[in-house]
Amino acid sequence: MTSALLSVENAVVDLPTPRGNLRAVDHVDLAVGAGRTLGIVGESGCGKTMLSRAVLQLLPKKAKLSGRVMFDGQDLTKLSAEKLRKLRGRSLAVVFQDPMTSLNPVLTIGTQLIETIQEHLELDLAQARQRSIELLAAVGIPAPEQRLAQYPHQLSGGMRQRVAIAVALSCEPQLLIADEPTTALDVTIQAQILDLLAREQQRRHMAMIIITHDLGVVAGRTDEVAVMYAGRVVERAPTPALFKQMRMPYTEALLAALPKLDVAPHTPLPAISGRPPDPTRPLKGCSFSPRCRYSAERCASEKPQLCSAETPEHLYACFHPIAARVGA
Amino acid sequence: MMLQAAPNPLMKVENLVVEYSVGGKTIHAVSDVSLEIARGETLGLVGESGCGKSTLGRAVLQLRQAVSGKVLFDGHDLTTLKGEALRQMRRRVQLIFQDPIASLNPRRRIGDIVAEPLVIAGVKDPDERRRRVAEVLSAVGLDPTLVSGRLPHEFSGGQCQRICIARSLVLNPEFVICDEPVSALDVSIRAQILNLLEEMKARYGLTLLFIAHDLAVVKAVSDRVAVMYLGRLCEVGPSEQLFARPAHPYTALLIEAIPVPDPDVRPTQSVPVGEPPSPIAPPSGCRFRTRCPRADARCASEVPELRLVATGQFAACHHPLI
Fold first, then answer.
1. B22 in contact with A at a CB cutoff of 8 Å?
2. Interface touch B191/A257, C-beta < 8 Å
3. What is the share, in percent, of chain B residues with pLDDT greater than 70?
4. Mutate to test the interface with A, among B43, B154, B159, B187 (most CBs of A within 10 A)
5. Reported pTM
6. In principle, which of A259, B280, B281, B286 could form an S-S bond with B220, CB 3.0–4.6 Å?
7. Burial (CB count within 10 angstroms: exposed 0-12, middle 13-18, buried 19+), residue A288
């Protein structure tokens, strides 16, 4: 994909720990184009957040990144700190899970918005203030003028996340990374925030990456999904194709393990046995094989590479993929 | 108003009111809630954060003092019990918390953590304690010989929750309150723990109050579900029926807001429902009226009582959907 706005090529992130090297991200390739939304799904510790930090060049100091992160024609891994600082906030924006930790508790909402805007755009104070009010209104905050003088603790969790989104959108970024943007929020607020993100993404023709543990969140709101397990992308496909036919047993098991509203109470859930492998003790074969019901000898000795199924867009890393449904 | 679940409920909460005082202001955490839980039943309690569901759970256990109302457990009013009498009763009622790692003392060994309730209950024979700890650890799927001597940090979140469940069951309780027992766990682990809770319920003949914010999780384990909003109950009914035909607009909103893992189900554009008001100054009348599409003048002036809308299903709404 040459037209992609962001492409991550062969990214590897290693973290030294007292227990030995931890490979948080293991040879990941991903791409997202302008106006498109990519969902990255996985459970805690699968490397999805480390991957997003590699894109933002915000990895912990000790972490070692190899591979390329191409954004708008330049390799972010080769940029100076100063150039990166200009890029982040301006073209590359991020919304984190907990808005309380991403907003500064001792500065007013107005100060935080105006500061970001003036840092990156050539606007005077009055213009920046006007823009802040427009942004707060755009993200659905009532009485935006009064809000400028308020502090984050005076707002509810949902309102704080709206402010964080307003800050992220303030300089018209080309790419927005939303890392578990609704995990800390209640379900009725979650729907509102996801709608807001989708609306702004469309309106601004941004590229967006939604990182989540919830397959339900990506199903209706992304163009493409990458499923991660133990640092690797194990399945990647256009969203409709993925949900129509999951090929990787992990993806299927993850969906099956979700409690569903259309299932009668007290029906035993098809749980995934065991737990993810210790990331400091990588397995020789497929990382999911100890928990996989299709696992065979080869799975324990050899690592399956991502390969494509019927269509070149649908990739999976499995020796025993789930067979295509007849007539599907 | 009666919510008859069974002729002889194990747990009966009557007109319970719990309030906190914060900086001179009163938080109306639980306002006039009545509930019944039959022996052997699982009642799910759902609601968003701050709705008072955890406070209700704690008030049932007498970990939080009620302003008024009764908590009748097997016919005894727990709110009037004190000292030894309350301690005796508490052995029959246990609690499992949301964060399994935080609820285990990091410096104590698993065997001692699980044996602690026995020590407090006065089981003096160490062999007897060991035997019961081993039995309950095996029941939750852990090998007693491997885990007893280890410390909590050596275990994952899912395993810690198994340990917490073992600790809550070691005294053979009759009633267990599970407060968001799986919300800190990953999807693949969550299913294991939900299945384990169901197994334990059957094995030990438990009655459960299952508190959670996730409707699908609640439905998976509950016979009946109660929906709470800003300190009041909106709706109570049999799980299947309540999810198929919600009567209260808030229940309907909650169901609609769940993201469905199916791309063909386009997310419904969320209605502009705003956010819950503060429990310090809850709206007059129906507390949900400020976000409700059906609200009218009556909803502002008159508190809706829970009343029967279908077999076994009660809703507190002036304009129910059924």
1. no
2. yes
3. 95
4. B187
5. 0.89
6. A259
7. buried
